Amino acid sequence: MTGRLTKLAALLATILIGAATARAAGPLASWNEGPARQAILNFVRSATDSASPEFVPPAERIATFDQDGTLWVEQPVYPQVLYAIDQVPALVEKCPDLKNQEPFRTILAGNLEAVASLPVQDFEKLFEATTAGMTVEEYSASVRTWLAKARNARWNRPFTDLAYQPMRELLEFLRTNGFKTYIVTGSGQDFVRVYSAETYGVPPEQVVGSADATRFGYDKDGKPSLTKVPKVLLNDVFGGKPEGIHLMIGRRPHAAVGNSTGDQQMLEYTKAGAGARLAMLVLHDDPEREYAYGPARGLPDSRIGTFTQGLYDEASKSGWTVISMKNDWKRIFDFEE
Amino acid sequence: MTGRLTKLAALLATILIGAATARAAGPLASWNEGPARQAILNFVRSATDSASPEFVPPAERIATFDQDGTLWVEQPVYPQVLYAIDQVPALVEKCPDLKNQEPFRTILAGNLEAVASLPVQDFEKLFEATTAGMTVEEYSASVRTWLAKARNARWNRPFTDLAYQPMRELLEFLRTNGFKTYIVTGSGQDFVRVYSAETYGVPPEQVVGSADATRFGYDKDGKPSLTKVPKVLLNDVFGGKPEGIHLMIGRRPHAAVGNSTGDQQMLEYTKAGAGARLAMLVLHDDPEREYAYGPARGLPDSRIGTFTQGLYDEASKSGWTVISMKNDWKRIFDFEE
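^ Those are the sequences you sent over. The predicted structure of the assembly is below.
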């Protein structure tokens, strides 16, 4: 036993030394020195130092991240919308009547800008029409197939390549410090769960998102199955974010990061508790390397939730940290160098 | 650095030797040798041996447990119902009209057997009336206060003392083998989350249960808050269990344990996937040390979901393991010796 333990201790020492060496590059390697990086470091120090008056016990270390525009590119249209659009031709073939109904008519006309301007209700209709009646496994398989083939038009890369490298480092840095990291997204949780582990290191059970109901039943062979039904259960934007967090996590987060008014309530809820707290907003102010929109202009805001001037003012009033993509991030994507 | 690492290695060695000594008693110490214990050991061996054709990758090791009647005593009435009953006098003082309405009239008459026979809708009404308008923090605090004072009539002990010791060992054994353990309960998740970590080692974010909606808003001081609203969001029994599992976990469990027809669909869903699978039902057949009901008779079944003869037959047909409390458990509670 003692011999085995000595070997184990030696192995652990090797791993720890390895980790220390890897960390020589430092955590948050893609972040420039500046107020955003400093806010993160200060927060983690206060949260993890047991002598700190703001110490957060490990079990309570919860961090929640919006996805679209916070963890990956949301312009010109949310990737989940592009997935749904790509399902429309097959759907219309099965139900030709849809051709003359919105939002299918606009989608089939092929003008993405017009699609992006459709009202929220039309997106719900689109999502429900393209998923209803599928088993949850059929849906995941369909998303997986699409992700493997689909390419973002501007970078000609898979959408999952367009995750922000500094955010992946922030997720990892928080996890290294004992935080459970969650995605809390207005996109469908069943969509995001397909790639969350591989892309962000966040397992499916730590993805909270908008969700339609499912119905338990048996397929024609008597096999138990869950089928997607067109009934909204969770609408994970605005007040729906803290509500979804309470339902799915049951704890108030200590850190929250977003990029729009759709995340404002999550940030407010996060900041309203005791102990160390971090609230951050990603500002899209880099038209060269990514996009400029919201207060930085240049592009219309994303459709659900916007980074308004009001939100910007709220941030400075409430002690939220604004992340300038242009100034705070050394690089945006993993594939850049 | 090296000095610190040596100390760390020594500390780890101490912990590992301690763990090895504690484990000398063996896992599942309160389980008798027999088919139930053997089924657990076989399942864990198949799931964790990377050479096994039924190997389950660590990320997919999810185990789900019903609570009432599976992890703790549910007779003569679910503890959550007793909590709600104890809130009725204060409620009636505020709203005297309720005195003449069901279920409040029956509750105030003080006959527990009559209360236990009320229809499910009356329980929903009871839960909603005793929680609506509370913030989620007020509700948790109220449950915590009640649990500290309330005593089970038969054993004169706190309800959390009436968790089944063999099940706590099973939860721990699965966790030791890399499983994430979840409670999937017909009781309210906000109720169970108050004590799940301390009683079962299951953190709040791993409790899936019935749930009413909450509403995000601001209190009179402008502080963001979540208030409980009387609108059922999840009804976590029967088909609602696999539906809740999909919503909150997003993975099909590899092990599921229940004790009634309310758990049947969860067991069916669990068994219908590939790799190692374990489905178990607790049979209450020990009137001396606990209760006898269901196929073992003696007491009426619990109200929501029952262990019927049909379920018993289904178990042997489907390869589910029936746990006989009388034969499979050396002791029922931690406080026995």
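The first helix of chain A runs from residue 2 to 22. Chain A is about 40% helix and 15% strand.

Shout if you want it in another format.
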